[in-house]
Design brief:
Pfam families: DctQ. This is TRAP transporter small permease protein. The structure is a single chain. With about 160 residues, this protein is mainly alpha-helical. It has one domain (about 5-155). Helices cover about 75% and strands about 0% of the residues. The chain contains five helices and no strands. Helix 1 packs antiparallel against helix 2, helix 2 runs parallel beside helix 4 and helix 3 (about 80-115) packs antiparallel against helix 4.
Length: about 160
């Protein structure tokens, strides 16, 4: 079986998404038990859960883009077929790519702004730009998946 960078990225992103979800669930359970039974809350739980949610979302987008399993509105799809349907598909796809490209660029810009400002997480003591940069890299990987999956997307729908 030949080596594929895309398959490696997909496997890596799926493992990262699962680990982020497990970490998020574990922190929530420990925090709720600690607050209700021991009257002690984890101070860093909000920050870790927020970071885990973002990591889980952006690492999971690789698979969502690749398999086109995101939520779509398909009420009018049965009316768009043939050349016109193909045109509509590619126009929607180009709009999707444009907006997601803007999102990726914005997250990278946010990382740079956080670096310039010197933001630090309150309880974790970690520079925010490092975390946002990691999330931006995951968003960039999801963007790659969006671009690579483009040619096959319309062929599967016909």
């Amino acid at each position: 079986m030949p080596f594929s960078v895309l398959k490696l990225l997909e496997r890596l992103c799926s493992h990262v998404a699962v680990l982020a979800a497990l970490l998020m669930a574990l922190i929530i359970v420990v925090d709720v038990i600690g607050r209700n039974i021991f009257n002690f809350s984890l101070g860093f739980s909000y920050e870790v859960v927020s970071i885990s949610l973002a990591v889980m979302f952006y690492s999971g987008l690789y698979h969502v883009h690749k398999t086109r399993s995101h939520v779509t509105i398909d009420l009018l799809d049965k009316y768009f077929f043939g050349g016109f349907g193909r045109f509509i598909f590619w126009m929607v796809y180009l709009i999707e790519c444009t907006f997601f490209t803007a999102l990726v660029v914005t997250v990278f810009m946010q990382s740079y702004e956080s670096y310039k400002f010197g933001d630090v997480f309150l309880f974790l003591g970690v520079y925010k730009w490092k975390v946002v940069l990691g999330i931006a890299i995951l968003a960039l990987i999801a963007w790659i998946s969006l671009l690579v999956a483009a040619p096959q997307r319309h062929l599967r729908e016909e």
